[in-house]
UniProtKB/TrEMBL annotation:
Lineage: Bacteria, Thermotogati, Deinococcota, Deinococci, Deinococcales
HTH lacI-type domain residues: 18-72
SUPFAM superfamilies reported in the protein's UniProt record: lambda repressor-like DNA-binding domains, Periplasmic binding protein-like I
CDD domains found in the cross-reference section: HTH_LacI, PBP1_LacI_sugar_binding-like
Protein name (Swiss-Prot/TrEMBL): Transcriptional regulator, LacI family
Keyword Transcription regulation: yes
Length: 353
């Protein structure tokens, strides 16, 4: 039966939490013996250990995690900094990271920077103060084309205090443990090849930001396939649904219109679908649309999006393995790549003759 707080004169008086002294008295052992059991020492014989554990259960004792952290120099927690938890890409990846950390006996502490650089710096400092055992770092400075020298020095200082693994980003010149990336360039290449096999040689590029490495990396692949594209066919309008809607509107104002568009992500592709619907353009019969990321939205829009999956579970597993290897003093690879997966649905069709 659950213990309830005692009411006196309308005020609730909570019972004092049991201490190791209470455990020692109940088990009829020394406080030192209780301490050794709590700290996992194997010098306590099985009979005494059983008495201590029974007393803990009877008193509903919960260990002081802060004290254990100080004793073991481990918090069994991992920090995760990301720019936008509302973005389905980061939400999907964080979910896999959190589940994987829990399976390994760690809790995950998230810092959502809402794409604000100052808040990002604040969270970086806070993770050190929280004494996390390591940090998974997504977006923000890890995707900046030209991070400042001050930020790079701050990050270098942080790596002397805790191991850092970046996911789908990197910090060149900073002593991080590993940069773990899905092969986004290869994924974009596979999608463009698929469009080409469907007869689409007139393809536009929608969305992205000119100061974000992932956007530029995908754009460079697009330029390899379509070096002579009209200027209006590249629209770096942003990363959200509104950016996709605006990008396709601009493309269709050009003198020549494409038969297909490849989008920086699925949100942008969803926006392009909205504009196509507004303008009476049939997808995929009149216009094929390709996304990227394979978020849940890609499956429920009409038509469902052909896209590229980041192999989220594997990406998270490898990032956590690299971080925990470093925490445990084992060497790791500086650069690790994870293959992406082409997902073909209904938003791409053979080009009309």
């Amino acid at each position: 039966m659950l213990q309830q707080p005692v009411s006196q004169g309308g005020l609730f008086i909570r019972k004092k939490a049991p201490t190791i002294y209470d455990i020692a008295q109940r088990a009829q052992v020394s406080v030192a013996t209780v301490s050794r059991v709590l700290n996992g020492k194997n010098t306590v014989n099985s009979a005494l250990r059983s008495r201590v554990e029974a007393a803990m259960n009877e008193l509903r004792f919960r260990p002081n995690r802060v004290a254990q952290t100080l004793y073991h120099h481990r918090s069994n927690s991992i920090g995760c900094i990301l720019p936008d938890i509302v973005n389905p890409f980061f939400a999907q990846l964080f979910l896999q990271l959190e589940v994987g950390a829990f399976e390994r006996g760690y809790t995950m502490i998230m810092g959502n920077t809402v794409s604000t650089r100052e808040l990002e710096r604040t969270y970086l400092r806070a993770m050190v103060e929280r004494q996390v055992d390591g940090l998974i770092y997504l977006g923000g400075l890890t995707n900046a084309i030209h991070p400042s020298e001050e930020d790079l020095q701050m990050l270098q200082d942080l790596t002397e205090r805790l191991p850092i693994v970046t996911v789908n980003g990197d910090l060149p010149g900073v002593n991080i443990v590993s940069s773990v990336k899905s092969e986004e360039a290869a994924g974009m290449r596979a999608m463009l090849e698929h469009l080409n096999h469907q007869g689409h040689t007139d393809v536009a590029f929608l969305g992205g930001l000119q100061d974000v490495t992932n956007s530029i990396e995908k754009l460079e692949v697009y330029k390899e396939f379509h070096p002579d594209h009209p200027t209006e066919w590249v629209q770096l309008t942003g990363l959200d649904i509104g950016a996709g809607a605006e990008a396709l509107r601009r493309v269709f104002q050009a003198a020549q219109v494409p038969t297909a568009v490849v989008c920086i992500n699925d949100l942008v592709a969803a926006g392009a679908l909205m504009t196509a619907r507004e303008q009476g353009i049939n997808v995929p019969q009149d216009l094929s649309i390709a996304g990227f990321d394979d978020i849940f939205l890609a499956q429920i829009v009409a038509p469902p999006l052909s896209t590229v999956n980041h192999n989220y579970k594997e990406l998270a597993r490898i990032a956590l393995d690299a971080l925990l290897s470093s925490i445990n003093g084992q060497p790791t690879e500086r650069s690790i790549r994870v293959p992406t997966l082409l997902v073909n649905r209904e938003s791409i069709a053979m080009r009309k003759p």
